[in-house]
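User: If only I could read backbone structure tokens as easily as an amino acid sequence. Underneath my words sits a plain record pairing an amino acid chain with its backbone structure tokens. This is the protein in question:
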Amino acid sequence: MDPVIIVGAGPVGLALSLALAAQGVPSVVLDEGAGKDEPRPARSVVLRADMAAMVERLGCTTLRDEGVRWVGWRGMRRRQLVRHLTLDLGLGGTEEWSEDPAAPSAPAAPLHIPQHALARGLRAAIAHQKLIRLVPEARLDTIEQDRDGVVAHTRGPAGTWWRGSHLVGCDGARSTVRKLLGIRFPGRTAVERHAVAALRTELPWPGEALLHRQPPWRGAADEITARPLPDGVWRIDWLLPPRGDLVTPDALIARIRETLAGWCDGVTPPYELIDTGVHTLHHRLAQRWRVDRVLLAGDAAHLLGAVGTQGLDEGLRDVDNLAWKLAHTWHHGASERLLDSYQSERRAAVAHRLRGADQSLPVLRGGGGLRTYLPGAARGHDALLTDGHVGRGPLGAPPAYPHSPLAPPYTEGRTPVGTPEGAPVEDVRVTAPDGTTVRLRDRLGQGRLLVLLVAPGTGVWDRRHWRGAGVMPRLEEAVAALPAKAEVLVAEAYPGAPAHAVLLVRPDGHLVAAFAGVHPKELYAAADAARGGSPADDSEDAPEDEQGDEPETGSKAGTKAGTKASAKAGAKSERKAAAKVGASGASTGSDRTADMH
């Protein structure tokens, strides 16, 4: 069978190729560049704990060597420390948040790493993979697709045609794939601007990240963020006025000196300036993420990043969601519902994040009118920003998919647990089939469902005794009969779960359903729903997704997908272009849709 074609060799495209390879799917990665990433310490990324764990599972070793997990988070307003969190470096959620005793645990520490170091680690992992082919200096100019696959043409030293089972556009904000498909990319331009500097110095809170709002010194920005990197390096961001003047080198040096002095008792400490830049944030959301066998991921599908949201983190969540669905389709065939669910789940989750950020901006940036002056409002704003940066709340928490088209119908055997259906499961300790004790997160990303039995006492008994006792034989028999490959795991306990509860977990770690005991028929039905049903179950009439875009399915998509879009025809041509990908051919050069930026 043909490989999956991945357009774009940034972190999202590289991670997708590794995630597919981990599930036995070959891929060709078309890299427009020369195959190297320019070192830019000022261009760094923040990964939530679960996405950092996913990248490590893919074999990226630079996270440990060139990334930093924050030990704490400080929030300051003017001269006052208003929030101080100790972050959980163990990622097990065991520390209590001192400021809110009702909170179940301290936030897991995010990981901060230069983007070029992350990309280099992913490329190093790819070097050990026989299923991945990296093609440098390959610029896409044509896509054609039919009912059996996709053909892409690239310009370069030797123009080449590539045949694949599917094609995924991970080619960034100015995505050629998106433009060839005629997909609109509406949103807001220049939502926020930041002056950025990477410098080596000593600050009074080693290893902790800082958000300083309304600093008291003259000429300061309304908001300054400082985040540690290895070897005493810090990335510092100054929020700029939306339509301010250009940031000159002299003005940036003045900002650096004033900021360091403000944090260090009025004296500017010695520092080494390593890198600088201006970071402009846009908020955009592609109207469609799938046209038959062509899909979008990462910045090609969405742009976000204001008030603590993290664009690359969301791009890696696209990978986590899409890889197992593509792998299942590649190996076994799949219903259209399975691939349609990628757009339904991820587009809805990113849209929710964008709405939260856009609704928060007027209040957080001083345009909230009366609400700004209400008692406790400033404290609430600080809490909202903190949650966005550390991975909690509406701006930062991992997404749930409660309305997924893959959700099974309710049955009597179900039982509630501490994790809502569609949400990510807790990273509890489990016993694997080979008898080893691992974290649940370690078993994700291998393309199989996980069936977790909650069996108190198993930790103190020899596995030989409980493996053939109680409900285990019946459960293993039920799992062997499931319509998709699955693995049985056993846990001493799971939050909110009664003894002998059985949890069905997707390959990306989201809970499908929980049952009060072993219910083979209900477990089978839930597993069948999670895989999107069989191809024979597809109907001609596909339901609309949450954003109102009707997915093309089956042969209808194969004949209506199109890549000819004309900049002159504007919006009318874009609407027509979505109906022409595949049999009608591909666009080149001058007849592409104009860039939306």
